[in-house]
Fold this protein.
Amino acid sequence: MVIVTLVSIVILTLKDAGQIAIAADIRGFRAVRKRTYYKDIRILK
């Protein structure tokens, strides 16, 4: 019973860590004055 609880806690912690990393990246996007953007380039036929 204890092992099942510990495994579930570890799995939920790893999922939360991924969400926190994404949030930190998004938050840091506007940290510098010179912003960088990507431009979607489409090829015309």
Notes: The chain has a mean pLDDT of 80. DSSP finds one helix and no strands in the chain. Helices lie at 2-27. The first helix runs from residue 2 to 27.
